[in-house]
Amino acid sequence: MPDAISIDVPPNDLEAFWMPMTANRRFKKTPMFFSAAEGMYYATPDGRRVLDAIAGLWCVNAGHCHPRIVEAIRAQAGKLDYASSFGVGHPLAFHFANRVVEIAPPGFRHLFLAGSGSEAVDSALKFALAYHRARGEGHRQRLIGRQRAYHGVGFGGLSVSGIGWQRAQFGALLPATSHLPHTHDLARNAFSRGQPAHGVEFADALEGLLFAVDPSTVAAVIVEPMAGSTGVIPAPKGYLKRLREITQKHGILLIFDEVITGFGRLGHAFAAERYGVTPDLLTFAKGVTNGAAPMGGVVVRDTIHDAFMSGPEHMVEFTHGYTYSAHPIACAAGLATLDIYRDHKLFEHAKAIEPKWADAVMSLKGLPNVLDIRTVGLTAGIDLAPLPDAAGKRGYSAMEQAFHNTDLMLRIAGDTLALTPPLIISEDQIGEIVDKVGKVIKAVA
User: Fold this and answer.
1) What pLDDT is recorded for position 2?
2) How far apart are CA 293 and CA 330, in angstroms?
3) Which of 293, 296, 220 is nearest to 262 (CA)?
4) Of 79, 206, 242, 404, which sits most exposed with the smallest number of CB within 10 A?
């Protein structure tokens, strides 16, 4: 029988695991390991407590190792560990779907489940293409994303994403994709709280793009209500509403990618609610299970669902799905997570504490190399001036400095520091994060 392996003991050999979205050679020279977590803090193998300022990866909204989620997973694993959703089912999937659509925007009564945000986005894009084909408009095949957008790593999501370095290794990707301009306008919107005042006209670029490609060929436009992975870029005032008007005018579906913004990050169940704009499809992941089990999905507007419900009843209506769609353990974790959000009023807490969060983060203005700060909900992006001829190096050094010397975990996007703490954060912990970030910024000046 092999020896037991302890998570508390770092491995002697780091070569076998090719880490995702990681500078592997740099990491393996100076590893950063966690071995435990609770609430707002990680623990390292050497016993340090590290304050989690990014909720794991935008996902641990209710804090780490919440006992209700732990128990739900444990109980479900001992009762039904796996069941397929291909032609059969288990009751938990339907209970979970019912709970999600209860907090979804009006007109969204159907839920498609996947295993991640990337799978959710690719599913939504396929819904859009198949929907138009079901209506006799199969010529609508173009997909429109946005510069600096991140929609996961599937071929569909990456094709509509707009972060160049993430696309560069893979060539042309899907054909018939276009991109709107991003909305980051430093000249007019520096140090903005919530939605920037300027930039609604960036949405009008869609009209110009449609003129060039013919709107009758476009299936869908996909945007993040807040572009998160690129460094926290909130949509300007009126921007999302204007996109909705243009897409409706031309019969184009609008997809909100709420993998990050869903489940309380912006103080509401979904950003669509915060901004009063209703898309046609809405993707989610991350916070839906508090990061405790992989899950993603698409909330589908009734009109789209109903367009598929024709033909012989024994035939599959939408030929798409995943082995782990509606995994029983993920559904159990999701139900427990939704209970916590409701019982502890975490969405309401995030909304109430947002002004204090913004005030605290904005106090970093004026520190060395700080070019811009943006806040919305419980998120913040802090742009640092890049080192000459070494874009991204200052940001990476800040992440290492935070972990090794400041007991803080933060996220970077190039030279932007991203802060996205768990929704359980207290005012004292806001102060602790901002104090530590200030020390990091000074250390890498």
Assistant:
1) 42
2) 5
3) 296
4) 79
Q: Is 343 helix (H, G, I), strand (E, B) or coil?
A: helix
158 and 119 in contact (C-beta within 8 Å)? no
Q: At what angle do helices 427-443 and 346-362 cross, to 10 degrees?
A: 40
Question: How far apart are the C-alpha atoms of 334 and 396, rounded to whole Å?
Answer: 33
What stretches of 202-272 adopt beta strand conformation (E)?
218-223, 226-227, 233-234, 253-257
Dihedral of the alpha carbons of 209, 239, 412, 260, in degrees to the nearest 10: -100
Give the integer Cα–Cα distance in Å for 445 and 320.
Answer: 50
Which DSSP category does 192 fall into? E
What per-residue confidence (pLDDT) applies to 8? 75
- Rounded to whole angstroms, the Cα distance separating 264 from 226 reads 13
pLDDT at 18: 97
Predicted pLDDT at 389:
87
Could you say which residues of the chain have pLDDT below 70? 1-7
Is 3:376 a contact under the CB 8 Å cutoff?
no
User: 421 and 55 in contact (C-beta within 8 Å)?
Assistant: yes
Under 8 Å between Cβ of 290 and 61: yes
Alpha-carbon distances, residue 267 vs 11, 114, 322, 413 (angstroms): 40, 24, 31, 23
Residues 85 and 76: their CA atoms lie apart, in Å, by 16
Separation of alpha carbons 252 and 331, rounded Å: 32
How much is the pLDDT for 1?
35
**How many Cα atoms are found within 13 Å in the side-chain-facing hemisphere of 264?**
33
Residue pair 115/333 in contact by the 8 Å Cβ criterion: no
In this prediction, residue 5 carries a pLDDT of 54
